[in-house]
Write a structure and sequence with these properties.
This protein is an alpha/beta fold. It contains 9 helices and 15 strands. The chain has a single domain, classed as Rossmann fold. Bound molecules: flavin-adenine dinucleotide and oxaloacetate ion.
Length: 341
Amino acid sequence: MAKQKIAVVGAGLIGLSTAVYISESISKCSVTVISDKFTPNTTSDVAAGMLIPHTYQGIPIHQQKQWFRETFDYLFEINNSSEASDAGINLVSGWQIFKTIPDEVLPFWSDVVLGFRSMTEEELKKFPQHRFGQAFTTLKCDCPSYLLWLEKRLKENGCQVYARRIEDLWELHSKYDIVVNCSGIGSRELMGDLEIHPVRGQVLKVDAPWVNHFIRDGDGLTYIYPGIHNVTLGGTRQKDNWSLSPDPRSSKDIFDRCCALEPSLQRAQDIKVRVGLRPSRLAVRLQKEILVHDGKKLPVVHNYGHGSGGFSVHRGTAKEAARLVGECIAALEGSSLKAKL
Ligand SMILES: Cc1cc2nc3c(=O)[nH]c(=O)nc-3n(C[C@H](O)[C@H](O)[C@H](O)COP(=O)(O)OP(=O)(O)OC[C@H]3O[C@@H](n4cnc5c(N)ncnc54)[C@H](O)[C@@H]3O)c2cc1C
Ligand SMILES: O=C([O-])CC(=O)C(=O)O
């Protein structure tokens, strides 16, 4: 049976990780990634890259937990290998702190991260405005390094990569058997999906090598995340704001909020401002769709809408997308067999 030709649209975290998973798990296919932007110019490059899940309201918790666990285990294995520095993965310990006791004292992901516990009174003394906290160790990606590492994996696996904007998925019908749509916020235009909307995030990437413990305010707005090459200071969450221009007032506000939690950041150097649009949706769209045009069919697998939590679940959603691609291949093989009989 001839190899099925698969096009993956999008070269952010989700497109690259899905293409890698497909190329490693399905032998009877060839994989091509097509995207108008690549690292370092995607939303995924801007992210802090911390593995702390955000809850998707439209997805059962057991499913989200499984995606997180698969992602955590995958990156933990890389972290424990000689690939860790190339892939930009590090383990980081720290605190998530709350001004009032949260409803969820034990979040669903507490037994996936390492050493989860409540903070002690002694630890909380550092944060006089906060009454409660959780201490744990998790993983962090240096996002541009991780995206380059995924691109390298793709090329080693014999995948093709093309720079091109797709106006309509149907353009791919003449050359490809199956399309995997990982276009993130681009799906609003490409699929006409009005459920997906931007949540603008502005962060600062600073040089402060003495900061090696993360701090996240439980409201999710303020965070200090030390990584391999810099410390990410966040942030903003501006719903339906499409502006990619840095806002100087937000930068000052982020810096002040972070310094209030970690005063030594006043000495941070080399402050760079980055802005990204989180591709937000009530639920990640992870499903098959058959496009039909003039009686011809094009199977599509969607994998987009990861919002604030793409890094935390990407390997799990890539695995699920690959399973759906496998189902499309089985259906195509079944129908070509029938046609021959
Ligand atoms: C400030 C900020 C901080 C964040 N921090 C974290 C964090 O700490 N932890 C975490 O888990 N998540 C975090 N996130 C969320 C995470 O960045 C996203 O969930 C993830 O990057 C989404 O990846 P993606 O591949 O879907 O999107 P993108 O990176 O936007 O990739 C989409 C790709 O599709 C391509 N594309 C779109 N339309 C078309 C088209 N028509 N034709 C061709 N190509 C197309 C684009 O060029 C791009 O390559 C953060 C996000 C932001 C903005
Ligand atoms: O909330 C966090 O800790 C970081 C993040 O995912 C974001 O800013 O989207």
